[in-house]
Amino acid sequence: MLIAALAVAAVACLVAVVSLWRVVTVERRFRVLWGDGDGPKEVARELASARSELRSATDDAGDSLKRVALVRYDAFGDIAGRLSFSAALLDDDGDGLVISSIHARSESRTYAKSIENGRSSIELTPEEKQAVAAARAGKETP
Region Disordered: what ranges (predicted)? Predict the structure, then answer.
């Protein structure tokens, strides 16, 4: 019985030594990965910072003039080729501008009108209204 108890104790000691060796190995690898032990905290701080920057970038993207539509047309009956155009450039809130260029036989004129919430304080032409509506809807115009 004593020999069996000593054998069990020896096996238990061997298991304890192997387990301790594995723990030391894991700790060594952990130190290599995380440096002085501040690693998990630093990773959490970096992740929080990255999330904050992503939120800021997402907010900024909403303010960019990314909704764009172009309407080409013939402003005058005697000139063909759809050389005149109205281009609307809006952000997600419908704010931005519409630029129109009217081409005639001997000259061309360009106009810019500000747009707030899809509307302008200056009367919009039908083509400008079409460009603004298409930009707000996120659709291409022919």
Answer: 122-142
- Kindly tell me the number of DSSP H helices and DSSP E strands found in the chain: 3, 4
Sequence-distant (6+) residues with CB within 8 A of 142 are: none
Mean pLDDT (whole number) for 35-64? 80
As to burial, measured by CB atoms within 10 angstroms (0-12 exposed, 13-18 middle, 19+ buried), residue 105 is exposed
Task: Encode pLDDT of 58-67 as tens digits.
Answer: 887 777 888 8
Where helices occur in the chain by DSSP H, the ranges are 2-34, 39-63, 126-137
Long-range contacts of 107-111 (CB under 8 A, 24+ apart): 108/83
What's the first-to-final CA gap in the chain, in angstroms?
96
Task: Name the token pair of 31.
Answer: 């130190």
Q: What is the pTM of this model?
A: 0.60
